[in-house]
Amino acid sequence: MSSDDEGAVKNVMDKATYERLQKDVESVKGEISALTAQLSDALNTFTGSAQKQARKTYKQARASVDSVVDDATKKGSAAFEAAQDAAATIEDTLEDAIVQRPIAAIGLAIGLGFLIGVTWRR
Fold first, then answer.
1. Of 41, 56, 70, 120, which has the fewest beta carbons less than 10 angstroms from its beta carbon?
2. What angle is formed at CA 54 by the lines to CA 52 and CA 56, rounded to 5 degrees?
3. Can you give the pLDDT of all 122 residues of the chain as single tens digits?
4. CA-to-CA distance for 117 and 109, rounded, in angstroms?
5. Residue 1: enclosing H or E segment and its boundaries?
6. Rounded to whole angstroms, what are the CA distances from 2 to 5, 7, 13, 97?
7. What pTM was estimated for this model as a whole?
């Protein structure tokens, strides 16, 4: 073969190799695009699932807090009512004692006043 023939064969082979490499590069670009789309879809799905789980957890926590607050309110109301009842009972008992024994009640009041006065002086 002459050097011109060799050069022509080399150019044809180089051109075929170049075209094959160009097709391979285009194929890889297409695969990268497809992979990018798949990753984007997977990320969107994961993000959606995470948002749903976060909302669910928030709703559960809020329901728990609301339940605890309701229970505390009920218990506080019950304790307040019990204290009011006890105060009313003590008031009624003292009133009955004062009405039944007025002199003893006055003596008790004077004695308590004296004890409080002595205690405060110290």
1. 120
2. 70
3. 556 655 555 666 677 787 888 888 888 888 888 888 888 888 888 888 888 888 888 888 888 888 888 888 898 888 889 888 888 898 888 888 888 888 888 888 888 889 889 888 86
4. 12
5. none
6. 5, 9, 16, 139
7. 0.44
Each domain of the chain, given as residue ranges in start order, spans 3-121
DSSP state of 122: -
Is residue 107 within 8 A of residue 115, CB to CB? The reply is no
Instruction: Check if the beta carbon of residue 105 is closer than 8 Å to that of residue 98.
Output: yes
Interior/surface letters 15-51, b for 16+ CB within 10 angstroms, e for the rest: eeeeeeeeeeeeeeeeeeeeeeeeeeeeeeeeeeeee
Structure tokens at 10: 């080399």
Diameter of the chain by CA atoms? Answer: 147
DSSP letters along 47-95, please? HHHHHHHHHHHHHHHHHHHHHHHHHHHHHHHHHHHHHHHHHHHHHHHHH
